[in-house]
Amino acid sequence: MAGIKVPDWIVKKCMKFIEQPVTDICNVTMKSGICPDILKLVIVNPLHKKGDTENTQNYKPKSLLPFFSKILEKFVYTRLIAVIANKIIF
To answer: In whole angstroms, what is the distance from residue 71 CA to residue 75 CA?
Structure first.
């Protein structure tokens, strides 16, 4: 499944226009417990640390997540922290 790569700066500039649909997607994801497959895709690039460039041990993985995955992650994190804080207080 190929996705359309939208640059982060475009999403940030348009956020006030797409805020409600993105919120709706996050809410549906939370209610259904199913994350859209397109948000599970990640691009892993090798990042050279130091030393010989021919040695694979001298590289570390750098994961590039879709911007909307980061939004969903923050959404879930915020909800989870609210639930945990509510249980601790009472």
So the answer is: 6
* Cα–Cα distance measured from residue 12 to residue 78, given in angstroms and rounded to the nearest whole number: 19
Q: In which element (H, E) is residue 59 found?
A: strand 59-64
pLDDT tens string, the chain, 90 residues long: the values are 455 677 888 888 998 999 999 899 889 998 998 888 888 888 899 999 999 999 989 999 998 888 888 888 999 999 889 888 887 765
Burial class (CB in 10 A: 0-12, 13-18, 19+), 49: exposed
CA distance 16 to 51: 46
Answer whether 0.90 is exceeded by the pTM.
no
